[in-house]
Amino acid sequence: MVSIVKIYIDAGHGGQDSGAVGNGLQEKNIVAEIARQMNQILATEYENVQTAMTRMDDTFVSLSERANRANAWGADAFISIHCNSGGGKGFESYRYSGVTDSRTIAFQNTVHDHVMGFYSQHGIVDRGKKSANYAVLRETNMIAVLTENLFMDNVEITKFNDLNFLIGAARAHAEGVAAFFGLKKKPQIVYIYTGGFAGNALAEVHDYLFRTGDGFDCKRGEDGSIIFLIGPFDTSQQNFKDCKNFLDSKGHYNKLLSPEEAADWR
Ligand SMILES: [Zn+2]
């Protein structure tokens, strides 16, 4: 039997509790969006994982209630997402000051290092792996970590106005959790959409597809050339890599389409 890993994602603050504010932004909104994105990434891209969240929207939940819910749900790990304030800058993470067990420390290390791996590419400084007597860390029964993502009272917080930056931070949190538990990625299904082919290039691509047996569909472009939609491929499989390599190495334009985009193409 495959065991399912249960991850509890806790977006700090909410409702009447805005958390810290600064630069025209409220902590509760930033952390809610990071949590939502992190949840989405874990739930859609990884196998054998179940997620729960303290809040999906702007509601107030007390600190003890957050811990109680994670405990009652039987979470394997708890991750609380916050932004800092008080005249500093950068990223830091916390575990409960009362724990010394190696799993909690390893969990903090893995999440911290993945998140910092993202932030360091954006000039965000590492304030270190810390411990504190925070209620959500103290009252949760499972391994738990709290991240403090940049300072509301420093202009660096406005980086979160860029959705790509925010999603990058959320993805780094998700990847840290996934790495700690050894979660496998779900196979990703794509199609390869090509440019238009004519003459020798058309014969070459046609040959390749008949040789490999990769499924394809084609249509005539406005200039009379033939455009291919090749797939579906599982990106983890060799035939995908071979086909992509073939097109790239010949200098043939191509791009990847999701199954939904491929359906529109037809
Ligand atoms: Zn906070």
Automatic annotation (TrEMBL):
This is N-acetylmuramoyl-L-alanine amidase. Transmembrane segments: none annotated. It comes from the Bacteria. SUPFAM superfamilies: Zn-dependent exopeptidases (SSF53187). Keywords: Hydrolase. Residues 67-178 form the MurNAc-LAA domain. The keyword Zinc does not apply.
